[in-house]
Amino acid sequence: MATVGKNRAIEEISLLKHHRSIVIPPDPSCEFLTDPLRVSYSLAGSLDSPRTLFIIPGMYGSRYLNTVYDRLAQEHKIRLLCLDRPGLGGSAAVPLAQRIPAWLEIVQRIFNYHGIRHVSILSHCAGTIYLLNFLIHLRHYLDPERPSVTLFSPWVHYDHSGVGFLRLAGMLPENFVGKFDSINRFVLRNINPALQFSAGPISASMTGARPALPSDEARAYTAADKEEREYKETLSALVMDNLFAESTLGANDEALLCLKAREGLWNAFEDEDDAILKIAKQEQKRQQEGHVELEVRVFFPEKDVLCSHKGQGWFDSCWREEEVRKYLDYRSEWVAGADHDSVVDLEKGVVQRVFKGVSGVS
User: Fold this and answer.
1) What is the distance between the alpha carbons of residues 54 and 110, in angstroms, rounded to a whole number?
2) 41 CB-contact burial (10 Å; exposed 0-12 / middle 13-18 / buried 19+)
3) Smallest Cα–Cα separation from 211: which of 347, 16, 103, 106?
4) pLDDT at position 131 over 90
5) pLDDT at 211 > cutoff 50
């Protein structure tokens, strides 16, 4: 029998705002638009708000992340936009070499379609590569009064993190790495449903296992607490079911992109230090023109098996170079008790700070 919490979760994931799509018509000027291109996305939160938070999620790049943050966005009166990247959800695939250029074009089309003039950005893991390209190519879309981007568990290539299993993966033939999705799908469905590969809080990790409570705390565990628990657990399961009911083939290209399997895949830069320097030079010019300083916030988890402390330190140092930090407002923070994925869980309390900042509440 369905409970109130379960019914709420079913209602949330069924809302039409999480299942939007547009078809971009062919455009001879774009290599990837020789045919109509379908894009699926979620536009949630307070839909009439002038403040929009554009979420660029991790490896599976799923619009379903919005279902987790929808209520929080409504509380803070901000609008949330999250796209399914090519080959994921209901979004059509594009050639690997065109993945980021296509994404940049898609983002502009979605913004224009909904009349979105300015955004703030939250990215996670693999979303870092897309975010840096956004800052280089689409910087003008950031809120002119408070241009801000926030990165959680930023992706760092194994050349800088030294993570052994990723280095090994980078040595594998491209067609083998291209089976990433089928392997991950099998593991998640048959071996360990709680395991994920940088899919963020859209799995069982968004709720975690509730430890046994002392007797006094157990008595304080009310019916409302139980309902909320059931809501989160049911929503987590529904998100994973829906995620894998749709296309996840794009995760293969996401893996190849993160491993930098070919030259030029990262589009506007070859490595993140190069991108950060380019961004700083752009910011220098913008400040000379009287624009507001760019705010960059990075939240590193205490433990990160994909990027390591070494990789985190390298990424942090790139933003602290003298020729970078004097042209933007950069701050970083390590989140105690968090891992690569759980750092964006609402239970950690950090995402709430980002939403509060975007809402304009000091």
Assistant:
1) 11
2) buried
3) 347
4) yes
5) no
Amino acid identity of 80?
L
175: left (phi over 0), alpha (psi -120 to 50) or beta: alpha
Residue 142 phi/psi, 5-degree rounding, is -70, 150
**Stretch 195-213: mean pLDDT:** 40
* Strand blocks (E) in 62-136: 79-83, 120-124
Angle in degrees, CA 118, 341, 350, rounded to 5: 55
pLDDT at 213 over 50: no
Does residue 315 register a pLDDT over 80? yes
- Rounded-to-integer distance, Cα 12 and Cα 232, Å: 11
In this structure, are residues 207 and 229 in contact, taking their beta carbons and an 8 Å threshold? yes
Nearest to 108 by CA among 140, 86, 80, 70: 140
pLDDT at 331 over 90: yes
Structure tokens at 347: 């239970």
Give CA–CA dist 54/80, Å, rounded: 6
